[in-house]
Write a structure and sequence with these properties.
It is built from 6 helices and 6 strands, in the order αααββαβαβαββ. With 204 residues, it is an alpha+beta fold. Strand 3, helix 5 and strand 4 form a beta-alpha-beta unit. Helix 1 packs across helix 3.
Length: 204
């Protein structure tokens, strides 16, 4: 495995209980320490992909927001997605990678066609010890402000119903309640349309 950055370990701490990440690390079994290392490497790959086809915002080493924007060329997107999938197949093992593919396909089927060109919040996480400081909000406001200037719609998916009020406060007003069959869990697709004249307070 490549060198794992502290921010990737923070993302692993933040998201280790998420149903999606539990499913793709199924080969870790009951070994939670191993699961965390695998997830940190997963996020390492995800950051590399987002840097190629979108952008990454960091809360120092405490967390990050990973975006896939619609600004990269189709050929660049194909190259980065293929490289990540190849690496994930080795990292996650047969069962984990199969779950990754099945869940990704299942969730893609529910994304409305009008969001295909939107900016996608792929990953957001802040380590537990740093939560409660508005870091997640500040991470998102940076890109949301740019999306408003670019007249871009943004969307995300979450398995966590407790996060819905947080996203609503940031302007994600369109919601689709879905069911993911591999994890057997409900999740939500949230969309945010451009807010013109919106000024983010990410610098506070």
């Amino acid at each position: 495995m490549s060198q794992i950055s502290p921010v990737c370990m923070s993302l692993a701490e933040a998201l280790i209980g998420d149903p999606f990440y539990r499913a793709v690390t199924i080969d870790s079994g009951e070994d939670e320490a191993r699961r965390q290392i695998v997830l940190a490497e997963y996020f390492n790959l995800a950051i590399a992909e987002a840097q190629g086809i979108g952008e990454v915002q960091y809360a120092d080493t405490d967390g990050a927001a990973l975006w896939h924007t619609n600004e990269a060329s189709n050929s660049d997107i194909e190259i980065h997605v293929a490289a990540r999938k190849q690496a994930l197949a080795k990292l996650l093992g047969a069962r984990g990678f199969d779950n990754y593919l099945r869940i990704s396909e299942s969730m893609a089927e529910h994304v409305p066609h009008q969001l295909f060109e939107g900016w996608y919040l792929s990953i957001l996480g802040v380590r537990p010890q740093a939560q409660g400081k508005r870091l997640a909000q500040r991470l998102l406001e940076i890109t949301l402000s740019r999306a408003d200037r670019q007249d871009a719609t943004c969307f995300l998916e979450t398995f966590n119903p407790l996060s819905l009020p947080f996203y609503r406060r940031l302007g994600f007003t369109d919601e689709i309640h879905c069911f993911e069959k591999v994890t057997g869990r409900d999740y939500w697709i949230l969309a945010r349309h451009p807010i013109h004249g919106h000024v983010a307070d990410g610098g506070q």
